[in-house]
What does this fold into?
Amino acid sequence: MSSRGRPVVTSHADIERAAFRLFAERGFEGTTLDAIAEAVGVGRRTLFRYFDSKNDIPWGQFDRTLDGFRSILAGMPDDLPVWEAVHRGVVEFNRFDPEADPPHRERMELLLRTPALQAHSVLRYADWRQVIAEYVAQRLELRPDGLLPETVSQVSLALALSGYQLWLADEEASLTDLLEEAMSSLREYLELG
Amino acid sequence: MSSRGRPVVTSHADIERAAFRLFAERGFEGTTLDAIAEAVGVGRRTLFRYFDSKNDIPWGQFDRTLDGFRSILAGMPDDLPVWEAVHRGVVEFNRFDPEADPPHRERMELLLRTPALQAHSVLRYADWRQVIAEYVAQRLELRPDGLLPETVSQVSLALALSGYQLWLADEEASLTDLLEEAMSSLREYLELG
DNA sequence: CCACTATTGGCACCGAGTGTCGAAACACGA
DNA sequence: TCGTGTTTCGACACTCGGTGCCAATAGTGG
It folds into this structure.
C-alpha cells in the first residue's frame, strides 16, 4: 500500500534522537534546524515533513498517546467519583516507560525548562485537556465547553505541571507520588479555615 | 533628569493603539511589524525598544500591574483562610477599568484566542504566578518553590483561565461572577464543604 | 556655540517556516 | 527490460521576526 514511490530515508525517531543529542550538547536555542538536518543526513526541508516545527520535535509522537489517555479514562469505573476518576487517569497516563529513549526525564526537562518550549507546549496541552473535558462532560451530562469541564481540565493540567516541576527538581523523586501529593495538597489547601 | 538627549517620538500606548487597530483589521498573524511601524510612523527597529517582541504588544504594560497585585494580597486580612485570600485577590486583580483603551475584552480575546499568544502568554503568567506562590509561602511559612505554593499558583491560573474562557464566550457575562463560579465549581467537583 | 546625552533608524545578518517544482527512487504492469 | 505511476526528497527563493551595530539626529546645559 505505502510501499510504492520513493522510500523514506529517515523517521520521527531518527530525527528525535539526533535532535536530542544536539540539544544536550548546545542547548535547544543553540541548535539550528540546519544542524539537525545535517546530523540526520537529510535536507532541512525534509524535517518539516516529519515535524511541524522545531518546537514539536521534543514532543515526539505525543498525539498518539492521547487515544491511550481516552481509553484509560473510559475504563474508569462509573461508581468512582468523577474527580477521582480523572485524577487516577492522569496519574496512570503519566506512568512512562523507564527504558524510553530519549529518557522521559530528559524530554520533560527540555520541555518544561526551555522558555520557547514552555510557551509552545500549551498548544499541545490543549488536546490533552480536551480529552479530560469530554470525559467530565460525558460523566456529568454537561457540555464539554461548559464551566465545570473547562475548569477541571485546566486544574488537572495545573496539578500535573506542579507535580512535574517538583519531580524535575529532585532526581530521586517519584512522579506518581508527586502527582498524588499535588492533588492532596490542593484538597488540604481548600479545606483550610 | 530624563529630558536630556533626543526626545522620544512615540510611546507604548501609541504603538499599542496602532497595533490593535491593525490586529482588528487583518488579524494578529496577518499584521507584520513593518505595517505597525509604518502606522506608528516609526522605524521597525524602534518597536523593539518599546516591546521585546510582537507577542508582547498585546500585553501592554502588564508588568506594572504586578505590584498592584502584590499590594492587594498583602492587604488581605490574616484571619482569612489562605485559599480565600488568594481567591479574593485574584478576583480583585481582575476588576478592570471599563473605560480602558484598548478595551479589556478586546485585549483578552486577542490574547486567549490567538494560538501564538496563548503560547507566549505562559511566559507572562509566570511572574503573576510567582506573586501568588510568594504570598502563599509567606502566609504558611513555606518555601515559595515548594509543592503547595507551586500548586496553588498553577491552580489559581487555571481557575482564572477557565473563567476568562467562559467570559469571552458570553458577551453579557460578568468576569467577576465567572471567577467566583469557577472556584465554587471546583470545590463542588472535589466534593468539599 | 560647543559638548554631552539619549533616542532613533537604517543596514546587514540570522534562523524559522512556507510554496513550488523538478529530480530521485521505488513498485508494478506491459 | 522498459516505461509508468507514485511518493518522497531536496533545492531554491522568499517572508517574517528578531538582533547587533553604528552613524545620525535632536534635544539639554554650560
